[in-house]
Design a protein that fits this description.
- The protein has about 425 residues and is α+β, with helices and mostly antiparallel strands.
- About 20% of the residues lie in helices and about 15% in strands.
- The chain is built from 12 helices and 18 strands.
- The strands form 4 sheets. The chain has an 8-stranded mixed beta sheet with strand order 5-4-3-2-6-7-12-8, with helices on both faces. A 4-stranded antiparallel beta sheet has the order 1-9-11-10.
- It is elongated.
């Protein structure tokens, strides 16, 4: 994905606040094999399917996320080679941000690579920027068929006493700039940190590409990617986690005019050319303070007495019939004094502190097949999941759960 801001022009978009929708992932539902996705989730899914990957990241969101890493470790980018792939440098808020703060952050080298226009979907229009048109290296054929590489190093090329966006050097790549190419892999292998907003249609491949490179990274991706078989084990092993995230969970991306259609009412705003998604996250292995904030929780007894959730108050915690763990339908209902296994909604990862809790697995790999537990016809089938018993002899299938255990026993030793 490209990111928006023409080189030499700082124009951060102000994020529009909206009321957060209620997280219903943990609410008890009647048995269902395939929960209905919201229209916004469906729109993002359609974008992936159609490879409409031009979502331009706002400056305010980049600044918020990078700021979280810098608050935790002011030297996180110092003396590092930073690569911004899948990124159109002429319009990139990522390039603009790191070029503007290059000297302040002590960056050793900044590299941005872009994808050739002719390799993008035909409906996406392309027009070279003045930055490229006015350069003697401009080639009207190469500008469409090849990717580009921009490099910023601690060299004052303009002689103005500063190292900034005006000191960028650029050149055409030999290929189209696909991150999977040997050419871009070679650049990745030079980098210490990779940061970008990659094509959502290629997210699995892109994440594998990052992991293969054994680099530190921060990338934007679909929220449901945290349950991918390629991703969840990395979270469980502490090799990947959620970043600070978008303000109130609201992600706004500018899209090209050619990609302005096919969105439900309220998703696309033609006056700003922006789409609004609540199902995108930052995935990273760069540490930040929110990841180490302790969840303030009540005891099991207090939850049963005072919880604001009717599923818990006066009822308590039910056990799964196909795994030895209790059902905790909301993150704020986790009992602070329970030492056994607990199943929690995926949204728990937004608050996950590895110093406070241990991830044991998920319902997808821990749930015993219901055919070994109950008679056919008493439960809804649909792949590995946890079930709880109903009063009428049937069983309710739950959304995906993460199984955790409190580390308090280990911390007391």
């Amino acid at each position: 994905m490209a990111n928006e801001t023409r080189l030499g022009y700082y124009s951060p978009m102000k994020s529009r606040g909206t009321k957060s929708s209620t997280d219903t992932a943990g609410k008890r539902k009647k048995p269902t094999a395939t929960p209905v996705r919201s229209s916004k989730n469906a729109n993002l899914g359609a974008a992936r399917a159609n490879k409409n990957d031009e979502f331009y990241t706002q400056w305010v969101d980049i600044e918020r996320e990078m700021g979280a890493y810098l608050d935790y470790d002011p030297d996180v980018f110092r003396d590092k080679v930073i690569l911004l792939p899948c990124d159109d440098p002429e319009w990139s808020n990522f390039t603009k941000y790191f070029a503007l703060h290059f000297a302040e952050l002590g960056i050793r080298k900044l590299i941005s690579t872009s994808f050739a226009p002719d390799s993008k979907p035909a409906e996406i229009t392309y027009q070279p920027t003045l930055f490229e048109l006015e350069d003697p290296k401009f080639d009207e054929i190469k500008t469409r068929s090849r990717g580009k590489k921009f490099i910023l190093e601690p060299q004052d090329l303009t002689g103005d006493g500063l190292i900034n966006i005006d000191d960028l050097r650029w050149e055409y790549l030999e290929g189209d700039g696909d991150f999977r190419s040997d050419e871009v892999k070679k650049i990745r292998n030079e980098a210490d940190i990779v940061i970008t907003n990659p094509p959502f249609s290629l997210f699995r491949e892109f994440l594998a590409w990052i992991i293969e490179g054994e680099v530190r990274f921060s990338t934007i991706g679909p929220r449901n990617s945290i349950s991918y078989k390629e991703v969840f084990p990395l979270i469980q092993e502490g090799k990947l986690w959620l970043g600070k995230g978008f303000a109130k969970g609201d992600a706004y991306f500018r899209v090209p005019a050619s990609n302005a259609g096919n969105y439900a009412t309220g998703v696309y705003d033609p006056s700003t050319q922006m789409v609004h998604f609540r199902n995108t996250v930052w995935l990273t292995n760069l540490d930040h303070g929110r990841r180490h904030e302790q969840l303030q929780l009540m005891t099991m007894k207090d939850n049963i007495t005072f919880s604001k959730h009717k599923e818990v108050r006066g009822i308590g915690y039910r056990k799964y019939v196909n795994h030895d763990a209790i059902e905790v339908p909301y993150t704020d209902s986790i009992p602070s004094d329970y030492d056994g296994a607990m199943g929690v909604p995926i949204s728990f990862l937004d608050k996950y502190n590895p110093d406070q809790f241990e991830i044991l697995g998920s319902s997808g790999d821990l749930g015993k097949p219901m055919s070994q537990v109950a008679e056919k016809g008493t439960y809804v089938q649909g792949g590995p999941s946890f079930y709880i018993a109903n009063d009428d002899g049937t069983y309710t299938r739950l959304y995906k759960r993460i199984v955790i255990r409190n580390r308090r026993k280990a911390n007391r030793k």
